[in-house]
Queue: 3 jobs
Job 1
Amino acid sequence: MSGTVSSSIDFDKRGKQSGYLKAGDSTNNSGWATFNLPIHSINSGAGPKVLIIGGNHGDEYEGQFAIANLIRNLKDTDIAGELIAIPSISYPASYASTRLWPDGSNFNRIFPGNENGLIPEKIAHYVATELIPRVDVVMDIHSGGRGFQWLEGATMTWSADQKYRSDLIKNLNGWNTRYSMIFPPQPGTNEMSLLPGYVASLGKPLFTGEFGGAGITTATSNRITRCALISALKSVSLLKPDFQSKSYDHQLEISKREFIDMRGSDSYHWAEEEGLYQNKKRLGDRVEKGEVIGAIHFPDSADRKPHLVLASRSGTVGVIRGYPRVKRGDCLTLVGDSYSDLSKLPE
Amino acid sequence: MSLTANCSFDLNTPSDYKGKRTGYIQIGDSTNNSGWANHCVPITSVKNGSGPRVLVLSGNHGDEYEGQIAALDLARRLEVTDVKGEVLIIPVLSTLASAAGTRLWPNGQNFNRVFPGKVDGTVAEKLAFFLSNDLFPICDSVIDMHSGGRSMHFIPSITMVWVSNVELRTEMVRQALMCKSEFTLLGGEQPSTNPDSLLPGDVVRQGKAVATGEFGGSGITTAQSMAVISSGLENYLRGMGVYVGKDIAASAYENSIDQSGKIIESRDYSVSFASALTDGIYENRVDLLQHVEVGDLVGLIHNLKSADAEVVEVRARRSGTVALIRGYSPVTTGDVVCMIGELFPSMEAFEKSIQEKSAR
């Protein structure tokens, strides 16, 4: 229960509604203000209850477009159950094309929120206390943002809990993407401060994905995201299996699937110098341990040689760098073993 | 001759000079933290006796990194024996904008709009003045490597503005094709812009040929875009007769680049451009190289602040091949979000179509 955020729509009401979450605000230019966050509810009675969130990070647009377009094209007769959708949960960051909110908050590091905190903290608190408890499944759609470019695909954070893990794997398959990527909990981060980490801590079914990035969307990345969202919603039996939409193109043949295991600390490659980074490998390329995968150039010095970045392991490139200006400690690329069958993945 | 900028090594070497030199263009500066300062722009010269002198430029816009990396690589690997004549390389013209990840300089200046510069202007204007007065006149040819920057993403390609001077245009076409790029984009002059204020425009004003390219964009580089630019640059220098070394870039990338010399012509910007007609967040609905018909949907502009606003559709005003899509997603009314051109299999096919049109 939140005392500082309210909803203009009644989630119990049947049918399709669009409205706002309203968070109390007070700004330099508006002493008494309300921050309005667009939210949609489609309630068709009995069935699964699903929350889908886009734009957790502002500059990750693929999911925001997929959700906004889906909601426009969806009728209450298309689903069985309840769908709550927030297409752009950090829209001030989306308009600034930044990962973080203009106040510096990273929406994916502030869970379970703070009822009396900053606007994003109030929203996080509302999501944690009102929306997540209400639903059976949470879907959180990401991409690389400006800093990263991912193979568009489903993701899961490895869980030590076998029962929950098998549930995550089922959902990983639910996206039905060409690529799936498995990674460890974020280094140096309280996992529960992340939206998906918070959901996982409750043992609640969760879908996550990284659908491209580099701060640009393409027709292809947008189509892959739409298709994955439709598959995921069908896999939890919210969307009816015969759902079709002429204006929401979601046809994509997946002939082969690939699972990339990025759990090892040697999957991560970090910048060890400040400079201008050059990707030397493409997404999906196979690399051998010790091979040059990138170079950090020093454009301010006319005769300094670049610092070469070597693969610390063999495998498939799943993530490359977007924004090329890097500083020491920035993540440059991720490499992992590729499997065609997830059950072959070692413990 | 500039009195406010100089090169740290002598540019007027005797014609039989042989050697590789690195140094800086030093521009008088005075900042809050350094009252008496020099703004330093790295420059490399590799000279081997007499022959053409070619100037390689990149980082004209800060967030266009493909050319900067290709030129940095070239500056380091080029040896005296690789060269006949002289290659002068300035890998990053707009160093401060490059460091900031922006198109414009931190003082708000667009380096590609300040030509012919100003001897007692801002640092950017002083640098432009030095290029225009001290460098362009002593060079036989200039290549200025661009990309879409953060806001745009091009098919990695050589680009050429269709100048009206036929003799110059013929030389520019020859140089563009010399790069052996898969695609050459033929564009018109920037609408509502003084063409002489652009760096390539200033070179053309001095009656010299200039090669330009738009090698990707979105403020990122990929192994693929680097392959296109690195081999294009090497092919260009070889074609100019100034590079006589091994096929390093060209052979390293020969399998990943189709060198078929296709042309995409989009000179009539009034129909080739698709522009945002409202502010919002833009979603690309077409991919690069996709064929579209007049009236086809190319993108959507979302209002993410509203729960019930309709999306605004952006449609193609001509049929053709998509040569440019939007990078940076937030758009303001009037921003170019897509460019469409007519695809020709070769320059000959394009020129033939022009002759047929004028015959009619």
Job 2
Amino acid sequence: MNAHVSSWLSHRNWILVAVGIPILVALWWAFRPEKLWINEKVSEPAPFASSTDPQPLYTGKLEGKTHQTSGRATIYKAPDGRQYLRLTDFTTSNGPDVHVVLARSDDQSLTQEIVKGQFDSVELGSLKGNQGDQNYDLAATVDVQKYNAVVIYCERFHAVFGLARLEPF
Amino acid sequence: MLSKVKVVMALAALAFTFALQTSARAQDSMKHEDGMQQNDNMKHADAMPQENSGKALETGTFHGKVHSTAGRATIYRGEDGKLILRLTNFKTSNGPDVHVILIAAKDADDDANFLKSSTGRVELGKLKGNEGDQNYEVPTGTDLTKFQTVSIYCERFNANFGAAPLEKF
């Protein structure tokens, strides 16, 4: 018997190894610490993808400011490349000279109910109706990443009826 | 020396009990919640040529502080009535035994890392990847008016990585 090996594998050390390894394995299994550094990226196609349908790009919920406003605002891209804003389940109060505009969601003017001074916005048109689903064309040049808020805006009194912050769909 | 061995043995026993218990619990919470299907979201949008593909019923964005989680969760209904949950722009932290579930709650708090065991849940499957777009089948008959939130859920530690409250699209 080799004296060197038998001293390393003495009774006590052998038990420590036999017990310690399962503990380490159990801890590794429970916490899987290596996953902190390993990403698993997947990229599945949309379940009902159809190239003939408009694709939603951004969406957000409308919240009321000076007037109760609710519904959803979504920006779609049609197969031909045209972009448009669509309001669904939409309700706001009726009013004079109400417009739909895009603005920057971090615009200081939007923290107040009444816009004072300069308001950096993109006009999409007069509000077609204060209730119901409606579409508004977007010029191809509009940068939606910059103008990422939909505002229901009364031009006459500079009042923000309602606001939706858009997020990627 | 004997006492040292005993301590080590006790630790090992603890570790294994812990491992067994968590796996048993994981199996427990796999049970499906079946309910009557009642979706009133069938009414068609006016000028949307979306007849060929699935209709987005509900959508919401993820939030999560403990494990930062971001992205969008959307539930689609196909022409065949099948419900599909799709995650887009999705990112969370990798971890052991992470699942996608629907929970019977309006939302989960950012700081509520752990889900209450009494919270009803529907299992949708193991998380396919901690990054990227991915689809999950929702069991037919799932009551979406009851299960209103998507949770990225670590079965092993009953931990909620992130949650997305769903709202009508």
Job 3
Amino acid sequence: MATEKEVVGLEQTLQVLKKVHRIVYDEMNKEIKVVLGEIRDDAQGFAPSTTPPGLSNWAKQAPGTVWERLIFDPAAIRKGIGFKIGKTKISQQGFSSFFTIINKNAAGMIYEVAGTRNPNGRPPAGNYKRTQTKKFSKSYNEDAGRHFIDAITAQSVAVRGKQGRLVIRAGEKNQKRARAAILVSITKATRIAHEKMPKAVA
Amino acid sequence: MAEPAIKYSIITAYSNKGVAAAEKGLAKLSKSFKKTSLARKLTFAAMGASFVALAKSSAQAAIADEKSIKTLSFTLDNLGRSFQQVPIENFIEKLSRSSGIADQDLRPAFGQLLSVTNDLGKSYEAMNLAADIAAVTGDDFAAITDALSKGFAGQTTALKKLIPGLDQAAIKAGDMAALMAQLNKTFGGAAKNNITTYAGQLAILKISAGKALENIGKGLISFLKGFTKTNSITDLGLAIEQLGVKIGDIFRGLPVYIKTFFASTDKAFQDSWFGRNVLLPLINALGKGLSDAATAASAAGKRIREMEVAGGWGRLFDITVIKKFNKAAIKTNDDMKKAAATTKLQGMFDIDAIQIAEALKGKVSDLDRARLEGMKALKTESTNDDIAAIKKIEYETLRANANLNSAQQLSAQNTFDFYKLIYGYAKDASDEIAKLSFVPKLPGAPSTSTGTGGGGAGKSDVPTPFDLSTLTDLSYLNFDLSGLSAANARMEAGIAGQGTTTTVNMNFPQLGFIGNAQEMATFVQQTIGEGNRNGYSYTGLAGGE
């Protein structure tokens, strides 16, 4: 017996589309991948090919040290930028993302957001250097943080306040166009799937 | 764990799944919590706790109020003004409501003033004035009335200290009338004005609440009096003690009840090993322990009451009570231990159980082991192990039968006849094969069969390999057997010739003739010496190795 069910919301739409017409769903994802790929390429274009001026030692961390994970490797930074199609975990506020641009390289993440919280670097810990909190800088050079951030900012050119320098920058740049393109793809896929569905016989 | 990454979301959606689930869960939790008896218990417990707190505070308020009334009444009696208690109480009531000062504070102050002045009017005036002063200065009402009463008695120092700026001449002269006039001029009406303020109204509200509390306390005491059918607080205490005795009786009765319950159970259960040896001794021990504890508690309660009435010796008495309680607890513990020991001993001297246990320790067959375990299972109350034991016995029986059949088969195989039979069949088959035309005859094979199934062939002569007469026709190999025979004869002759002794004379061209062994040894020594001189080494060559 044919039953009708109303599909509401993006999550349900994508779930039903995947279940009802996988080919259409896959074709839709291909279109979306092209859009997301453009943003990814844009973000990779923002990634630096050399260390920021004055921070050459960032690329020379000795292997086996705790800093090895954070080593500046332009290729790795570019490789760490990608995209993801699929629902992410629901945040505490109840939001989840379906199409995401990701920056997962450690050095890339640092490059992305350095100085967003403390534009002049973290305040020095002073007499509390043994504290475990990350709110304070434990460097003996009080200007180390500011120097680091200034070098990155100078290289990345964009002074964007609290915004990022790689994926966030690319995302903000292409957001409207990408969102429209993705929604068009989803709408188109939904319409095609609906047309291809067997119609109930009156 | 998800890999850390910075994410930029192109399309985000809101999901109310979590919120809806949380709301649903909370509603469910609330619903189920209401249903549970725990919630009820908690509610009642909270109610009980608050009721107890209210009862305690209200009773205390009522007692304090009564105490202050009694004190004032005593003062009035002493002053011969008992008949004026009602108007005085009315005055205190009004003053309390108008000034926000508790009547429990006003009564002793009034009593103090009246005892000093012995004048009701002056006392009223002083009370009103003290309330006014307290409203302005914020000083303690009792301290002000104390200063005033001292002033009326001729000591104005306290008043001077409390309220600076008073007329020094009046203070020195102890003229209380002048001082009162000055104070009235300064502070008069302050209390009335104070009522209009927020703090004043709060104070009055507090007074009302206190009154309410007193009333509740009075009501509670009268309720308890009615409930316990007593007319005095002393009787009420006795009634509560009787309630304690009843609680003690519960302790006493509980083991009896358990025993009765045990007696009402199935006879088979009572007569069972578990019932006789475990449950009954435990019930007896528990009953005795509870009874002893109840007796000790009751005696202790009685002593407490007596000591409270008599007063003193509290500390020593507490120690005695604690010791008694401890003694009862130790005794109960000992009884429990004894019961447990009895049970253990009975278990130790259960001959059947011992025999079964010992038998199980020994080397017994699986079937016997299963049977023993079945006997052991019979000694327990549970039927589950009986079923398991039956199943195991059946299984082991089948297994034992199968083993027996297998052993019989094996023993038959090991007999001579069995192998004889098998060999006979094999021999017959071999002979049949030998009879076939295309099978070449074996050299030296017996011409006739030694019989079938007769226990093996007869022993034939083994052919000699180098005896030509015994050799089979090997012409197809094209050997020159006559030549081989001649060569063999030559070799035999050579070997025989080595047995004879031959003297050989050696002639060395440079040394001439060596005719004997001495000359040979001399020659060898000369040769070695010459070789050594020429740098040759013969080490390791001597010794004839």
